[in-house]
């Protein structure tokens, strides 16, 4: 009986130490943890929002060719599956190059 008491006490101590729930994890149980859609961008000033839009347009216009082809391939499921096996370059060439007249 004494030999069983020590493992039970150790198990109870380990369970109490490992299963303790702190109050920091209670943040996910808040009533409304998300921001309303109308107020989602209110923390960004209009000036920074304008700059961000301009920078995004610049990034879109100066995208490398491999990234454009990869995005086109990601939107087409057959191309994406082919890319998983043979790579994005081969998949893009198979599904999109022939349509544009190239071989």
TrEMBL record:
PROSITE patterns from the UniProt entry: GLA_1 (PS00011), GLA_2 (PS50998)
Protein's name according to its UniProt entry: Matrix Gla protein
InterPro entries, A to Z: BGLAP-like_C, GLA-like_dom_SF, GLA_domain, MGP, Osteocalcin/MGP
Compartments, record wording: Secreted
Keywords: Calcium, Chondrogenesis, Developmental protein, Differentiation, Disulfide bond, Gamma-carboxyglutamic acid, Metal-binding, Osteogenesis, Phosphoprotein, Secreted, Signal
Gene Ontology CC, one term: extracellular matrix
Disulfide bonds, paired cysteine numbers: 73-79
Organism (species): Callorhinus ursinus
Any one biological process term the GO annotation gives: cell differentiation
GO molecular function: calcium ion binding
Source organism superkingdom: Eukaryota
Function: Associates with the organic matrix of bone and cartilage. Thought to act as an inhibitor of bone formation.
Residue ranges annotated for the Gla domain, each copy included: 51-97
């Amino acid at each position: 009986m004494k030999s069983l008491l020590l493992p039970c006490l150790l198990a109870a101590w380990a369970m109490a130490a490992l299963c303790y729930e702190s109050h920091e994890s209670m943040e996910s149980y808040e009533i409304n943890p998300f921001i309303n859609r109308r107020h989602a961008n209110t923390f960004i000033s209009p000036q920074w929002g304008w700059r961000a839009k301009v920078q995004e347009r610049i990034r879109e216009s100066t995208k490398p060719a491999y990234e454009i082809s990869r995005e086109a391939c990601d939107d087409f499921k057959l191309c994406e599956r082919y890319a998983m096996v043979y790579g994005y370059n081969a998949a893009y060439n198979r599904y999109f190059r022939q349509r544009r007249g190239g071989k």
